Amino acid sequence: MSTAPQAATMRAVQLSGPGPVEHLHVRELPIPSARDGWVRIRVEAFGLNRSELHTRLGLAEGVTFPRVPGIEAAGVVDAAPDGSGLAPGQKVVAMMGGMGRTFDGGYAEYTLVPLTQVIPIDTDLPWETVGALPEMIQTAHGSLTTGLDLTPGQTLLIRGGTSSVGLAAAALAKARGATVLATTRRPDRLDDLARRGIDHPLLDTGEIADAVRALYPQGVDAALELVGTPTLPDTLRSLRVHGTACFTGMLSNEWTVKEFYPISYLPNGVRLTAYGGDAGDLPQDVLQGVLDAIAAGRLDIPVHHVYDGLDEIRRAHTDMEHGNAAGKLVVRVHHA
């Protein structure tokens, strides 16, 4: 086990139990002890995710409290198992695998995660940029590839287009040569979608299938559902025969279909898939390619706001809960 010298305690955000943002507390906790098969990371930044809001609201299964939330983190290796190929100082990101749910996650100065959830990276991008990427890129990339098998020249509808995953998926889809339609419930965000290269920004009134078919009478080739089950039937009606919808997100906090009868629920010939995924579903070369493309100015991944330190976590969660962001929310972690 290779380790770097470090103090005995750290600052971390601890969720005392399900409830309002006041249940998030910045506390002094022991730095997690190194263990075989796990990597300790000195966290430099982490992104916020709806999954963590679900945890705070008591909607996530299998969570025990108190718990340090956070399903992703970016930073440098502080301790790594022998033979892992990782050494102290190596830049890495980590995500999923129970982070912030069954064991303490990324809302801390240090986090200890399974080796299988760690991806080494090589970049000089600012930490607040890197911290925005892991879960967002994993989800967007997996949805477009595993979920939709999107190919150049196809049309893609993104339901929930101003979310962080929605904007990332749009950027990746455009880079793949797709034509992108994306929705927002707020009229003031239509121009922002257009500025980000969305071909057809659409105002989401709850029903958009007619607006989609006004542009593409046969329907679009693919749809990424990020809002949840309330909008899924209308999203399915936006697709052509043999078109595919991928259910990935639950911005509405609703993810189950009651009394699902496929023949009446699915339009004839329309396909429905889903995507979850974890770190193992994001190839290292894909993530590195995204980092390199951002550094070269070929790809723009939206960061809505960077919060300056752990003490801003309640403000960050409030912004996430009330939908105040068009893009990713990131917390920059400061060390004494």
Structure description:
This protein has helices at residues 50-56, 127-131, 134-147, 164-175, 190-195, 209-215, 232-237, 262-265, 284-295, 313-321, and strands at residues 2-3, 9-15, 24-30, 38-47, 72-80, 91-95, 110-114, 118-120, 155-159, 179-184, 200-203, 220-225, 239-247, 271-274, 303-308, 328-332. It is an alpha/beta fold and 336 residues long. It has 2 domains: 2-133 and 301-332, Quinone Oxidoreductase, Chain A, domain 1 (Alpha-Beta Complex); 135-274, 3-Layer(aba) Sandwich (Rossmann fold), CATH 3.40.50.720. Helix 5 (190-195) links the parallel strand 10 (179-184) and strand 11. The protein starts with a strand and ends with a strand. The model has no long low-confidence stretch (mean pLDDT 95).
Which labels suit this protein?
single chain; 336 residues; alpha/beta; Quinone Oxidoreductase, Chain A, domain 1; Rossmann fold; 2 domains; eight-stranded mixed beta sheet; 10 helices; 24% helix
Short description:
This protein is 24% helix and 28% strand. The protein is globular and about 65 Å long.
Number of DSSP E strands: 16
What is the CATH architecture annotation of the largest domain? Alpha-Beta Complex
Number of domains: 2
Report the β-strand fraction as a percent range: 25-35%
Q: What is the CATH T-level topology of the largest domain?
A: Quinone Oxidoreductase, Chain A, domain 1
Main beta sheet, described?
8 strands, mixed
Succession of helices and strands = EEEEHEEEEHHEHEHEHEHEHEHEHE
The CATH class of the largest domain is: Alpha Beta
